[in-house]
Amino acid sequence: MPELPEVEVVARQLREVLVGQVAGAVHVHHPDVFQPQAKLNRRSLRGTSCVGVRRRSKLLILDFSSDLVVTVHLRMTGHLWISPSAEVRPAHTHVCLELQRGRELRFRDPRRFGRVGLLPAENLADDSYIRRLGPEPFDLTVDDLANRLAARTGTIKGTLLDQSVVAGLGNIYVDEILHRVGVHPEQVANRLLSREIEALSSAMVDVLTEAIAVGGSSIRDYLGLSQEPGSFQDRHRVFGRSGLPCRQCGQAIAKRKVAGRGTHFCPFCQRLRRRKPRPRRSVTVRGTL
DNA sequence: TCTAACCTGATC
DNA sequence: GATCAGGTTAGA
């Protein structure tokens, strides 16, 4: 469900309610979902207080006074919220962290792709997910982006989804960003023009910033901490709009599979430049004349 | 660099 | 019943 903007929104909300809270035990209702590092267990956080909440790419990082961190990856359908401990747990609630005053932080995830980790803060940099991440879109310079694209022979869509190139983009935002810059999702990444790379670089920041400001996109599952949806889906130009008129040119938005993902684009505003312009057949006739 | 697999639930 | 879903990753 969530990409960078949605995770950022949740991180900000969590920061408000969690910092200063003393943790109790962790209750695990599905063992696959909670993954503490060696020597740590569901009681390791007990009595320590939350001192900060961060986000790196799509990963939430909760810092505790014990120099332990809890990591949460929501993947497709994960959701966090604060609930009275006495309240009945909805189906698929896999992990609960006791807080003060009879409340707990709950993690629910029907598809069970999401993960809750517990590890020493000093080990965070070695985490296999974090280690592979490229820069945050907000820290990515045009030159760096250009260099990264230059090495890529796949589609721009697949390349931007690759978290080692840029961290935090997912299916929605890649489609939205590519439409803004008028680049076809199947364009080969290392064939983008420099003006397109410049536009791409700023569109990334613009789209993500706008989305964060309105609480992210809620398509089917995503809800913030207090179950409130975001509203960026109302501003989508292509994602979820196949068959509807392009807001820019009126042509019907197309949808097809690119890089294994449902991909939305405007066939008119986002033209595919095939390979190199075909070398024009030589007009000069050798030998004769 | 691409695909299949991991899961469940919603929709066609 | 088949297909699709906002993510990631092992393996081809």
List the helices and strands and how they pair.
Layout: H1 4-18, E1 26-28, E2 34-36, E3 50-56, E4 59-64, E5 68-73, E6 79-84, E7 93-98, E8 103-108, E9 115-120, H2 128-132, H3 142-150, H4 156-161, H5 171-181, H6 194-213, E10 254-258, E11 261-265
Parallel strand pairs: 2-9
Antiparallel strand pairs: 1-7, 3-4, 4-5, 5-9, 6-8, 7-8, 10-11
This protein binds a DNA duplex (12 and 12 nucleotides) through residues 1-3, 6, 58, 73-77, 92, 109-114, 128-129, 152-154, 158, 161-163, 170-173, 217-222, 239, 259-262.
State the total count of DSSP E strands. 11
The figure for the number of domains is: 2
Using the 3D structure, state the CATH architecture of the largest domain: Orthogonal Bundle
Name of the level-1 CATH class of the largest domain: Mainly Alpha
Question: Strand percentage, roughly?
Answer: 15-25%
Q: Remind me, CATH topology of the largest domain?
A: Helicase, Ruva Protein, domain 3
Biggest sheet overview: 5 strands, mixed
Strand order of the largest sheet: 2-9-5-4-3
Helix content: 10-25%
Summary keywords:
single chain; 6 helices; alpha+beta; Helicase, Ruva Protein, domain 3; 5-stranded mixed sheet; N-terminal domain of MutM-like DNA repair proteins; 289 residues; 4-stranded antiparallel sheet; DNA-binding; disordered C terminus
